[in-house]
Request: fold
Amino acid sequence: MEKILKNSWALFTGMGLIMIAHGFQVSLLGVRAVHESFSLTATGFMLSGYFVGYFIGAKTVPILVSRVGHIRVFAAFASIASIVVLVHSIIINPFTWFILRIASGFSMVCLYTIAESWLNDRASNKNRGSVLSIYMIVLYASMAIGMFFLNFSKPENFQPFILVSLFMSLSLVPILLTKKKPPKFKKIIGMKIKELYEASPFGMVSALLCGICHSAMFALIAVYAASMNFSIFEISFVTFLIAISGAISQWPIGKLSDIYDRRTVTVYSTFASAFFALCAIFSVGTMHLPEGLASSKFWFYIFTGLYAFFSLPMFALIFAHTNDFIAKEKFVAAGAGLQFTFGMGAISGPFLCSMFMDFIGENGYFIFLIIFHCLIGAYGVYRMKVREVVENPDSQFTPLPTTITPIGLELNPATEPIEDPIKPVETAETVIVENNPSQ
Reply:
């Protein structure tokens, strides 16, 4: 562990600063949109731009890296992400912010991919699991810390945008000063959608629905809280709870999935998520009223935290379940295919959820999440009836952040590469003798 931290401290520090900026920015834009009186539909449309950019960037980054190299691409897109944040404070309207969110999403996926490629290069088969664990802790913990920076200045001021930009720019320093040579970039090719669906129908369908849920949850939780008259501290606290609960729950739920049928664990998790989302609605009561009349938010925090506890490990569960039905050498390709499917769902999540909120009211946020979690659970129950459990000794649950890229999936110890066989020396000598004209 000490050796990992010594060799990769620059990357972990840089990514920590990036995630502080990212967590701060997501919460800030949601609260500022409410303050600027953007309609809920316009806010959801604006926030969905991040996932559009993320999806485009995931397909484009290998070309960019192969042309100009890791360090230049990282420096360029960290700088772009820093500039984009500042432009938010200058031009304030939903459509412009949508374009800016596309640029942010594109930049972030480039940064994730390069960082994970670098970690992959420095990790060995013995310590890849430890590297991935530290990386996940850094991402979730830093994002959670970033959400508390909402309390340093009012969201309607320009100072918070400067602070986000500052953290993003600072992330360049440790990574650009590292002495290590950048790794050789290897493009990951995903499985065809048809092949992936035939291998695991539940894996592919649930990845799509999970993308819708997770993107809506992260993008709109600050909007929901601001609409319910939460104070800035209360907004930062509830967003912090979601990030931390998701990180804590990965290990216990993953352990259960290695003991029992993964579909069973996934179905119970998704129905538990729906149940606690429903409980969050009932806990609302009069807490949206002005201070002095509002009810306690204690139970809302508890139920929202429990919702995230069961919901956020689901992509890792789906990834492990899909691996149960494929050969080990296809684990990374299948993961890339699932990420593609997850991204397709993530693009539409915030926009669709905001339409629910616009039509039903603020609690449309949780109703939307309940519907899609129930769809995952219902389809899982159906698949359990038509397909038996498959024991695959190569497949195991590995905690994964929702931002993981196909390059990062290679850090999973279960994806240990199969080395090409070495040609025996005798064979080469025989060929030389046969071609010797003196014989």
